[in-house]
Q: What sequence folds into this?
């Protein structure tokens, strides 16, 4: 027994010295097998990608089409071309292949109109424009009592804190314009931090379902999305500006804002790309990503490849931009001005001589664009 | 095999060889001890959800332990953690890499088998361990994606210990535990969230979750109220549910245990 006791520690130490960590965890697969690299991408998407059914994509057929050039690829570039071409068939901005020196992504939406020039807005529409402390948004005044926020991205962190500072410094404004045009997204949580400042109570604004099994229609049950009050609250009317370049987390943000009774969306339809991307790594060091869920509005509708229509549709044009006019912002400001007429107690200081009827009617009756639309959404939420 | 692994292996071999050559004596005495453990944790992980590549690296570890032992039983409670950076064979300029943190809480109760007399004795019992491994994976893509992965397990391990006294003041312990029951949380994709909010904690079958926990320790009495303990520990975990998760953690540690009260 004593000999065994002496021998065991030595054997164990030898096991360590022999590098049992590598042995037990496993070694890296060979990076030179281009066919295997292709198969990893194809199988990953086959198991996790969320839009095969809704987009009517025959993934098996695409395998048959692209596996041949992938296996016969003489260079890594040729392999990347084959995989990139296969991924482009998904028509999804959340599907990318990153290789050294080149990114393969779907470009079909690149020509969508934007008609938004931040420099024009900042030069001609907004005064006292400032950066928030974390740099996540800029804010100023579009009129003496109309605040303006520009959120160019939802990437990074510190959005809620930035908005709290902006709201503190915009004290006294009666209405707010939140400009998210050309915002390609980032992190959904950041959008929710912004929306929380405008929420009066917790409201369901949608749901997501993840791919959850080998069949292309295997999904989790709906997971409810909720926007709840948080931070410094702004209770006045809010106008969100959108256009065709709004995607991903920005669309999630717009979905959340649309259920709030003080919010109106003005502008163009958003892009229609809600798929939360899953990032993966290949054995040769390339990375790729693809959508793993389907997001739904509060009524259970998926707006993927459709986009969110605004409450007030305005697209604008290149000619208007060249003439120094931002049609979407013009429309939003016009509505805000109209809204101020309807606000009791404000008419004398704003525009003497406005229509008397708007003095008499409650605000909510006149400003139907926001109130009635939001109310109908809220009703659907309650019903669901 | 990394240079660090090789160095640690050689040091450990030398220490254990010295310890094994010592002359026998009665095993360590009773009492209550509080121990502070420092050391190096060598982590090696492969999480198929994160990458087809193996990631490894080292991290300093810190553990606080309390042990109370009587004539025929021992109760040990340990709380510890380590934090470090893991790299792969493709890591260049810091990516891809993983910032990893591990934490653990363990409670172990063992009793002496047989008479327990002499210089060597067997003990058996159980260990309840809660372990968490959280990793932020920094991908090498231009957008700098960072994705969080984690593996959480709460396991019940039947445990066997072999203790032997060496010399007037030395004791060596060899310990082995294998998980029998386990709850596992491994959030990823559709497993990340549920309608209830958090990722699900699932009962792991014996076939889906396997592992082993092996440790060696050589304790040397310093004066009348403290022990200096040189230890080695290897924890292997494997979870096969969808993509496989495998991890091997080696720890080489040095501990100072102070007797709080009770017989030396």
A:
């Amino acid at each position: 027994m004593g000999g065994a006791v002496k021998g065991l520690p030595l054997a164990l130490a030898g096991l360590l010295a022999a590098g049992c960590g590598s042995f037990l965890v496993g070694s890296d697969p060979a990076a030179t097998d281009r066919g295997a690299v292709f198969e990893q991408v194809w199988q990953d998407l086959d198991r996790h990608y969320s839009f095969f059914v809704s987009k009517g994509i025959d993934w098996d057929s695409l395998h048959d089409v692209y596996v041949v050039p992938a296996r016969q690829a003489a260079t890594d570039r040729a392999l990347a071309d084959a995989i990139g071409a296969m991924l482009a068939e998904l028509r999804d901005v959340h599907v990318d292949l990153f290789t050294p020196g080149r990114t393969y992504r779907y470009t079909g939406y690149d020509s969508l109109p934007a008609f938004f020039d931040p420099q024009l807005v900042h030069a001609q529409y907004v005064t006292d424009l400032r950066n928030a402390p974390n740099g996540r948004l800029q804010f100023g005044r579009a009129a003496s009592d109309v605040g303006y926020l520009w959120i160019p991205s939802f990437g990074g962190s510190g959005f809620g804190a930035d908005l709290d500072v902006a709201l503190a410094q915009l004290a006294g404004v009666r209405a707010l314009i939140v400009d998210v045009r050309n915002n390609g997204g980032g992190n959904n949580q950041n959008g929710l931090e912004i929306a929380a400042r405008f929420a009066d109570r917790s409201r369901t604004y949608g749901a997501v379902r993840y791919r959850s099994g080998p069949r292309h229609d295997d999904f989790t049950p709906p997971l409810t999305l909720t926007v709840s009050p948080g931070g410094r609250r702004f209770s006045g009317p809010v106008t969100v500006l959108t256009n065709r370049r709004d995607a991903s987390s920005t669309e999630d943000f717009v979905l959340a804002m649309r259920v709030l009774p003080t919010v109106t969306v003005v502008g163009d339809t958003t892009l229609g790309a809600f798929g939360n991307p899953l990032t993966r790594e290949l054995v040769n060091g390339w990375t790729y990503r693809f959508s793993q869920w389907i997001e739904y509005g509060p009524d259970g509708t998926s707006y993927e490849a459709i986009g969110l229509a605004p409450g007030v549709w305005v697209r604008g044009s290149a000619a208007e931009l060249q003439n120094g006019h931002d049609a979407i912002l013009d429309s939003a400001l016009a509505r805000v001005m109209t809204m101020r007429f309807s606000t009791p107690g404000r008419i004398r200081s704003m525009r003497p001589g406005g229509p008397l009827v708007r003095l008499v009617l409650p605000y909510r009756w006149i400003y139907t664009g926001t109130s009635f639309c939001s109310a109908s959404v809220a009703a659907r939420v309650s019903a669901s | 095999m990394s240079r660090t692994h090789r160095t640690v292996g050689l040091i450990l071999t030398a220490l254990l060889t010295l310890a094994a050559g010592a002359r026998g004596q009665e095993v360590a005495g009773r009492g209550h001890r509080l121990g502070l453990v420092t050391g190096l944790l060598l982590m090696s992980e492969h999480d198929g959800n994160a990458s087809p590549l193996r990631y490894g690296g080292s991290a300093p570890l810190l553990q606080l332990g309390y042990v109370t032992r009587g004539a025929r039983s021992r109760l040990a409670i340990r709380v510890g953690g380590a934090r470090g950076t893991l790299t792969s064979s493709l890591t260049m300029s810091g990516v891809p890499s993983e910032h990893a943190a591990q934490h653990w809480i363990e409670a172990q109760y063992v009793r002496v088998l047989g008479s327990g007399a002499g210089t060597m004795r067997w003990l058996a019992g159980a260990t309840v361990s809660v372990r968490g491994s959280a990793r932020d994976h920094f991908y090498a893509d231009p957008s700098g994606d960072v994705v969080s992965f984690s593996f959480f397990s709460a396991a019940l391990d039947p445990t066997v210990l072999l203790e032997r006294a060496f010399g007037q003041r030395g004791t060596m312990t060899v310990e082995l535990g294998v998980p029998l029951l386990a709850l596992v949380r491994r959030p990823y994709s559709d497993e990340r969230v549920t309608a209830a909010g958090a990722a699900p904690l699932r009962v792991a079958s014996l076939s889906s979750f396997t592992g082993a926990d092996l440790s060696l320790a050589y304790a040397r009495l310093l004066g009348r109220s403290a022990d200096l303990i040189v230890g080695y520990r290897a924890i292997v975990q494997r979870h096969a549910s969808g993509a496989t998760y495998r991890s091997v953690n080696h720890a080489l540690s040095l501990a100072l245990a102070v007797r709080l009260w009770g017989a030396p």
